[in-house]
Amino acid sequence: MATILPEDFGSRRHDAVTPAQGDDQEIELRSVLAMLRRRKSVIFGTVAAILLVTLLVLIQMTPRYTSQAVLMLNTRPQNVVDIESVVSGLDVNPGALQTGVQSEISIITSRSLARRVIEKLGLLQDPEFNSSLRQPSTLDYISPFAWLESGTRWVLSTIGLGPERGGAQQEPRTAEEEQNAAYSSVITAFLANLGVGNDGRSYSIVVSFTSEDPEKAAVIANAIADQYLVDQLEAKFEATRRATAWLNERLADLREKVKESETALQVYKEQENLIDNQGQTVSSQQLSELNTQLILARTERAQVEARLRRVRELVKTGGVESSPDVLANPLIQRLREQETDLVRQQAELSGRYGERHPTMINLRAEIRDLRSKIEAEVNKIVLSLANEVEVSRARESTLASNLGSIQQNVGELSKASVRLNELQREADANRALFETFLNRFKETSNQDQIIQPDARIISTAETPLWPSFPRKKMILTLALGASILLGIVLALVIERLDNGFRSPEQVERLTGVPGLGLIPAVRASRKSQPQDYVLQKPTSAYAEALQSVRTALHFSNVDHPPKVILVTSALPEEGKTTFAVSLGRIAARSGLKVVLVDADMRRPKVARVLGLESDAGLRELLAGDALIPGVLHKDEPSGMHIIPSQPDTPGPQDLLGSRRMRDLIRQMTSLYDLVVIDSPPIMAVSDAIVLSGLADATLMMVRWETTPREVTLSAIRQLRQSGGRIAGAVLTRVNMRKHARFSYGDSGYYYDKYKGYYAN
Predict the structure, then answer these.
(1) In the predicted model, is pLDDT for residue 744 greater than 70?
(2) Backbone angles phi, psi at 207, to 5 degrees
(3) Whole-number mean pLDDT of the chain?
(4) Whether residue 286 is found in the same domain as residue 412
(5) Helix, strand, coil shares of the chain as percentages rounded to 5?
(6) What is the pLDDT of residue 531?
(7) What is the pTM of this model?
(8) Per-residue model confidence (pLDDT) at position 341
(9) Where are the alpha helices (DSSP H) in 463-605?
(10) Are 487 and 44 within 8 A, CB to CB?
């Protein structure tokens, strides 16, 4: 089978229908103008409504004036001592600029600072801020909030919860509660007219206030700046006072703790007899000395034992004269010398006298006597070494016994040292903490003499000459422009509320995939389903649309028409199974040998649509549990063959991507003229991505007016990335009468004119 490249599909058709760039712009402009004409009532109505409301509001608006005061935060706080933790100034780090400035803005816009200004200027009695003191205007009557409040009172009265119907009466409030409620209302109105801002690049803060009276606006803006500086000073003085009092109390407690911890340490040392000597106790020193002596005693004992073993070995072998201990004995040396002289005399006289001569007999007796003495001296040396070994062992044993006793004492002292170290650490920690608090107390006590505010006023507010609101000409101009723009936007929104595709040209323009046709929606009934139309009404619009798609698919590659067609969609319920069955039936009725493979192994529908019953299907075929004749079914009305699938098949991706699946498709192409594969939705599972590599062409089903464009684009993108050969997209379940109302220029636009050619 020849390999068909993706770019072969629809290349000539796409080039044939692609207009020039100038034509594209002209068509787009005509579409926009047509849309504006269709929605002109929306645009004009929006403009008229917005302008009318704007005029009514402007007539009722009271002019308002805005005055501004400028504060500058101090970036060089004059702290003589290091006490930032108590009354620190602003962080002048450029990275913390916005954090510090926003914190100060929060203080200026706080309700507590607003109340101080209101109390100072007596704004509680000003009708501009106290709504209970002013007469309602016409704008108040037409306000939606006024209507909501009036409607709420009417509903409560109707259901019997109003005061006039005997509803629950509120308990009277005290004078203090009344005053707090009044202040709360005035503060809310006051803050609504206050504006505080920063340019984000400097430490300046602009304080603006808007009022109906220009002089009042300037006075209030300056009062806010003054009270902000006063609030800073008072806060710092109060913080210093509280810190000093707290530190004084803590110092007294810490002083007592230091005294108690040091006393406890000294008492414990005396009780446990823990006397330090250069960082070590007496027992520790004794343990170290005995350990050293024991090591030396063991070494000495080993040396003496080695000498004794050597001497005994030499005695046995007769070479004791070479022993260092024997050689070092002066008595033995003298006896050896005497023995040597007697042996020499014996040798000299042996030739003069016979062996029995008295002289020779005396010499031999003297030699034997000397040798007996030498042997006796050697035995003494051996005995002396043996005694020395016993003495060394006894000394080693005594030292080991003393060492064990001292080790036991040291173990007990170590336990006491743990407690001693704990008391020492506690005393050191209390002393260090006391010294730290003492230094901080001295710093805090002197800080209240140099406290300064963190800001200063660099520009006072002046009385404005012109109102800041409303600017009628600008508002009307903006309202006109905004209303026109809003009308156009509303028209576009209404036009494009549906995010689906409405024409093959739209699909091709937005996705780059050729639009192969429109499949009309067919009303299903118990007796007739859409897939039955191709058999019952072969000349219907539904059947002709399928023939058109089939023809477009055939001419997408005239030299090598695709034989393996993969039918998929982005989402479920887009009509892919109905299309696959219908396409297979209409191709089989035309005389082709067609096989339909249901590759949706999770939610198969082909068997249910065609009324097939089978215990074996594609899974058993790919798993080697069944052969093709055992799973192959025939659609009697059309002659099409079907390979169904069983639902909830485990591991469908592995089966569909296996070599058995490739061999099956290769075998089907040799036996059939057309192989149609019905696959699951792309966005639900990746089975279709796996199957796209096995198909000669992939058809993307897109439900008309319903499937979101982003979902379709994502599905097509996934197919392209996996190397799938996309032949085109087909719009399914199209409402042809509704489609004809839109000027898309395709065949559906002329449906009413040629519908007589179809047998419904």
Answers:
(1) no
(2) -105, 115
(3) 79
(4) yes
(5) 60, 10, 30
(6) 83
(7) 0.43
(8) 79
(9) 472-495, 504-511, 530-536, 541-554, 576-589
(10) yes
Neighbours of 116 (CB within 10 A): 18
Q: Is residue 677 part of a domain?
A: yes
Q: Which of 226-235, 333-342, 539-548, 667-676 has the lowest mean pLDDT?
A: 333-342
**Coil, helix or strand at residue 612:** coil
Query: From the CB of residue 359, how many other CB atoms can be counted at a distance below 10 Å?
Result: 13
CA separation, residue 183 to residues 172, 262, 371, 441 (Å): 18, 58, 133, 40
Please answer whether residues 284 and 358 qualify as being in contact, where contact means their C-beta atoms are separated by less than 8 angstroms. Answer: no
Measure the CA–CA gap between 240 and 447, rounded to whole angstroms. 7
* Within a domain: 94: no
Q: Which one of 447, 468, 486 terminates a domain?
A: 447
pLDDT digits (tens, 9 = 90+) for 444-484: 666 555 567 788 999 999 999 888 888 888 999 999 999 99
Looking at residue 78, its pLDDT comes to: 52
Name the nearest CA neighbour of 9 among 579, 752, 513.
Answer: 513
Q: What is the pLDDT of residue 567?
A: 94
Backbone angles phi, psi at 164, to 5 degrees: -75, -15
What is residue 666's predicted lDDT score, i.e. its pLDDT? 93
**What is the number of domains present in the chain?**
2
Q: Are residues 523 and 423 in the same domain?
A: no
Q: Which residue has the higher pLDDT, 94 or 17?
A: 94
| Residue 94 CB burial class (10 angstroms; 0-12, 13-18, ≥19) | exposed
Which of the 8 DSSP states describes residue 502? -
Together in a domain, 615 and 527: yes
Q: Does the residue 302 lie in any domain?
A: yes
| Token pair listed for 726 | 């996309």
Residue that is last in its domain, among 416, 447, 478: 447
Q: Of the candidates 566, 546, 518, which has an alpha carbon nearest to the alpha carbon of residue 727?
A: 566
75 within a domain of the structure (yes/no) = no
Q: Which domain holds residue 715?
A: 504-754
Q: Which residues of 435-454 are buried (b: 16+ CB within 10 A; e: fewer)?
A: eebeebbebbeebeeebbbb
Strands across the sheet containing 697-703:
515-520, 726-734, 697-703, 564-569, 674-678, 594-598, 640-643, 633-635
From residue 506, alpha-carbon distances to 142, 620, 724 in Å are: 48, 42, 22
Residue 363 token pair: 């010499």
Is residue 296 predicted with pLDDT exceeding 90? no
Q: Examine the domain organization and report whether 291 and 413 are in the same domain.
A: yes
List beta partners, residue 207.
69, 196
Contacts of 733 (CB under 8 A, 6+ apart): 519, 521, 574, 575, 703, 704, 706
Percentage of the chain exceeding pLDDT 90 = 27
Q: Residue 193 gets which letter from DSSP?
A: T
Is 591 found in the same domain as 695? yes
CATH number at residue 746: 3.40.50.300
User: How many C-beta atoms lie closer than 10 Å to residue 668's C-beta?
Assistant: 20
The 10 Å Cβ neighbour count of residue 758 is 16
pLDDT of 389 > 70? The answer is yes
Residues 435 and 511 in one domain: no
Beta bridge partners of 731: 518, 702
Q: Is 302 left (phi over 0), alpha (psi -120 to 50) or beta?
A: alpha
Question: How confident is residue 577, by pLDDT bands cut at 50, 70 and 90?
Answer: very high
Residue 526 CB coordination number (10 Å): 5
Q: Are residue 516 and residue 427 in the same domain, yes or no?
A: no
> What's the pLDDT tens digit per position in 351-380?
777 777 777 777 778 877 877 777 777 777
User: Which pLDDT belongs to residue 89?
Assistant: 53
Q: Is 60 helix (H, G, I), strand (E, B) or coil?
A: helix
Does an H or E element contain 633, and which? Answer: strand 633-635
Structure tokens, 271: 């009780």
